Amino acid sequence: MFSKQRLATGLAALTLLTAASTTAFAQRATEANPGQISVTGTAAVRVAPDEVFLTIGVESRDKSLQATTRDNSDRIAKALAVIKRHGVPEKSVQLNYIQVEPDFDTNVSRITPVAYRAHKSIGIKITRLDSFEPLLTDLFAVGVNQVENIEFRNSDMRKHRDKARELAAVAAREKADALTSQLGVKRGRAVRISEDSGWRWGGWSGSYRGGQNLMQQNTVQSVGNSGGQGGDSADGDLSVGQISVTATISVDFQLD
């Protein structure tokens, strides 16, 4: 049977051995990972738009289902005629399927509708910016009663995205250099790079019917300032007639 003294001596030795192993492991971990600094760089490129993606809608309502769909079809046909008259090619026009739904007065009946609603959207790609406002005015005149989305773009977005990404990477590196210089250490190699890709230029549709969605669609295309701008922020003085293409890059650098 072990005495209490021998048991205490054994436990103390085990504690010392565990502490020594932990210290050695921590030293090896520190040598393998000497420390890092994490930074984020953001940049914006200001460009002039040369395209407008417009989504308009026609909503009809009547007590008769047949009258509702007929009215919607008539106004859509007039809208398509206006679009054609303004020189927009057929390949730049997207017509969505009609959506029909009943309206109920729940105080009277949940089975028999009091009216019907019909909705249809048209997506239009406009490449002549000077025709945008006259087209929209003429569409209102023939019964279009919803503007669901307006998105200004540039047709060479790939080039502008690449430039914004390049400037954001430079901004991240410069920020890391400034911070490490102030703290008396040196920036090492990059060990992790990630992009916060918030691009919204890659598609258009007529599914946006509310003001909230319209606002979300337009957040990345805020009106811009000069032809190009790098730095740590995509904000700045904005001028009418330009859009902003932004990029954000996050980088982890080792510390030497």
Notable features of this structure?
256 residues, alpha+beta, Translation Initiation Factor IF3, Alpha-Beta Plaits, 2 domains, five-stranded antiparallel sheet, three-stranded antiparallel sheet, 5 helices, 8 strands, 29% strand, elongated
Return the domain count: 2
Q: Which stretches of 5+ consecutive residues score pLDDT under 50? A: 17-31, 199-240
The whole-angstrom Rg is 31 Å
The portion of residues forming beta strands comes to 25-35%
State the shape.
elongated
With helices defined by DSSP (H or I, 4 residues minimum), what is the helix count? 5
In this structure, how is the largest beta sheet organized? 5 strands, antiparallel
First-residue to last-residue Cα separation: 55 Å
Order of SSEs: HEEHEEEHEHEHE
Q: In the CATH hierarchy, what is the class of the largest domain?
A: Alpha Beta
